[in-house]
UniProtKB/TrEMBL annotation:
It comes from Heracleum sosnowskyi. It comes from the Eukaryota. This is LRAT domain-containing protein. PROSITE patterns: LRAT. Residues 20-169 form the LRAT domain. Pfam families: LRAT.
Length: 262
């Protein structure tokens, strides 16, 4: 991979790699985990969510509105009912776009030179076997509800590679794209009071760019303190996916107890 681009060729990737491709003329990128055999596991909004007429302005998915008709792989597009985790072939994942490989364990200086979020992280990756295990487990068990800022396709791939989960559900997730969207307006806002002290537009632009990069770095999972390592088998409990099921069990138990009393 080059200094300015993470673009790679298909024959260069291997099982466990975190790959991505750009959508809508580089407006956003869609991320997934390459599991070998020309297959990718990735996270998209559930089908019933994507059918809504009120779609978000920014959707980091890229597959939800496309019907599958892959002539090469019969299992391309496999997903369990009511799940956003999907298995597709590499070509359907790319949709004629270029292939890029997400970088892990980069130095802070390299991270700050990558102006665009969603391309690298300072966090270290786990072994390819562990990464593939997480991706395939989530294909069978889901990854919760899709959320643009807290639980999107990049969050999915980052979790598969690192096993890190954000503790604070109210803040921004692990996604570099999400932090980029939030960081740009924040940097402009914070630099506004400095405009009076800097008559040069170049000075204002430099300060804004610096604040933007620092805001991105502060939200990177490699330096954040609000992330913990969570085994994929325990993910549903930590994210609260089982809360509704537990409530149903409690209600059924209470009903049974009431029947016994009668």
């Amino acid at each position: 991979m080059g200094i300015l681009s993470n673009r790679v060729e298909k024959e260069e990737i291997k099982g466990g790699d975190h790959i991505y491709t750009y959508r809508a003329v580089f407006a956003y990128s869609h991320h997934g985990i390459y599991v070998g055999g020309n297959k990718v596991v990735h996270f998209t909004p559930k089908k019933e969510e994507s059918s809504s007429t009120e779609a978000p302005l920014i959707t980091f998915d890229g597959m939800s509105d496309i019907p599958f008709s892959c002539p090469t792989y019969p299992d391309c597009g496999f997903r369990l009912p009511n799940s956003g985790v999907v298995l597709t072939c590499l070509d359907c994942f790319l949709r004629n776009g270029s292939l890029y490989c997400f970088e892990y364990g980069v130095s802070p200086s390299i991270f700050l030179t990558r102006v665009r979020g969603g391309t690298c992280t300072t966090a270290a990756s786990d072994s390819p076997q562990t990464v593939i295990h997480r991706a395939m487990y989530l294909l069978q068990n889901g990854f919760g509800n899709y959320d643009v800022f807290q639980n999107n396709c990049e969050d999915f791939a980052l979790y598969c590679r690192t096993g890190l989960l954000t503790v604070d559900r109210l803040g921004v997730g692990r996604s570099g794209q999400a932090s980029t969207v939030i960081g740009a307006p924040l940097a402009a806002l914070l630099s506004s009071p400095l405009k009076l002290l800097m008559p040069s537009p170049v000075g204002v632009a430099t300060v804004t760019a610096g604040l933007y990069c620092m805001s991105r770095y502060a939200t990177d999972i490699g330096v954040r303190t609000d992330v913990i390592k969570v085994a994929v088998e325990d993910l549903a409990v930590n994210l609260g996916w089982l809360e509704s099921d537990e409530e149903v069990l409690e209600e059924n138990k209470a009903s049974d107890e009431q029947i016994v009393k009668l």
